[in-house]
Design goal:
single chain, binds zinc ion
Length: about 270
Amino acid sequence: MIISVTDPFYLTVAYILCGLLGLCVGSFLNVVIYRVPLGMSVARPASHCPVCSAKIRLYDNIPIVSYILLGGKCRSCKCRIPFRYTAVEALNCALWLLCVLVYHTNLIFMIISCAVCSVCICVFFIDLEHMIIPDRFQVILGVLAVTSVFFDTEYDWLSHLIGLAAALVVFIAVGYAVSRYKKRESLGGGDIKFAACAGLLLGWQRFILMMLIASVSASVVLLIKSKRSKDETSKEYPFGPFLATGAVLALLFGHYVIEWYIKLLVG
Ligand SMILES: [Zn+2]
């Protein structure tokens, strides 16, 4: 069943609701990004300053607004609050608004997309800092991927299944080839699981685009990094942030790009 929000009034309500909710969920994502890799509970204890342990009051916990009012400093110890916290809130809000813009004609897929964007933000920052993609994110993404098969109006179920198969074949083959060639593990198990979930979620057409974005952006970033520091050739970099970026961009804009490309080919 496809529920479409086209009435201007309800569409405005959807934008306002998703914008505000996106900010609040973004604030919660900061807690998830900080605590999950450390094995801490996301519910307890309540938010506190990591430097002076002062409890953060409700009025100091308003997304973006509090950061500006407090001048980016903790109220009690005046230590700097990392800008990343505000960036994550703003990013989650912006992506949720884009989900409304692109998928308001398919309400359930719109909600799935919002959740996928939030999971990808967590994967991006956690893998960047800790070089792991915790399994709980894979499970959430897997459930969202299975649900998306039933509600996607752009691509049918077969496209989603081929996406899953393609992701598994490509990642296991490349992982095997590189590990034999370089005699070390190249793609982590987390990357393979993430790619499999993304393949099922996106369908093979958008999955190809995701892999293009991920590999090109990874190559550019690694090239710049290796030029800056010449002695770090053996240093490992996480691939998760690039996969997450590719997945979000392919999910939001994939079908536009693919349509444009097909028109270009057909002429
Ligand atoms: Zn403090």
